[in-house]
Amino acid sequence: MSYCKYCSQLPLDNIHRIYHDNIYGIKPKSDNEMFERLSLEILQAGLSWDVVLKKIENIKTAFDNFDIATVSSYEDKKISDLMKNKNIICNNLKIQSIVHNAKEILKIQNNHGGFIIWFDHLNCTNIFEYTKELKKIFKFIGPKIIEEFLKSCGYIKTHDDNCYIKSA
Question: Angle of helix 143-152 relative to helix 31-44, nearest 10 degrees?
């Protein structure tokens, strides 16, 4: 069963339905939102998406709503506090990667006017090309994380043709 069909059968207040109806396949409106989606895919690696969705509000709070400038300034104390936070996904490599990625996005913003602007100008035509380009800059990414990130951000068609929600 597709994610669209699965979500269509869920109550409106279900975490999967809310994500599907309001986020999945819709282009982010800000660099911070795009950074959040990349970070959530990193946190999800090796886990069920259900785990991320159940913890999403705690994750957003713990990571200062994925404000790129704030996350890029995290030091050892903040990372240590995140590792002790049982309400989020505690994986040192993932957390360190998210901080590193925030620093890289700041550089991209300074050099290209924005993360979304830069991303939209990548000359990639498939997941493997995106992965190759993004691996030059970011940590803890691979083809599956990039595929889900591209789907989440609407760069790859996500919704079924007969879905009640259409990609932006």
Answer: 140
Which tens digit of pLDDT belongs to each residue from 107-140? 999 999 999 999 999 999 999 999 999 999 999 9
Q: Is this structure's pTM higher than 0.90?
A: yes
Angle at 143 between CA 57 and CA 30, to 5 degrees: 45
CA angle 53, 73, 65 (to 5 degrees): 25
**Structural contact between residues 97 and 140, judged by C-beta atoms closer than 8 angstroms:** yes
> How much of the chain is in helix, strand and coil states, percent to nearest 5?
60, 0, 40
DSSP state of 165: S
Could you tell me if 153 and 34 are in contact, meaning their C-beta atoms sit under 8 angstroms apart?
yes
Nearest to 28 by CA among 125, 98, 143, 120: 120
The sign one gets for the Cα dihedral 134, 139, 144, 150 is: negative
Burial class from Cβ neighbours inside 10 Å (0-12, 13-18, 19+) for residue 63 reads buried
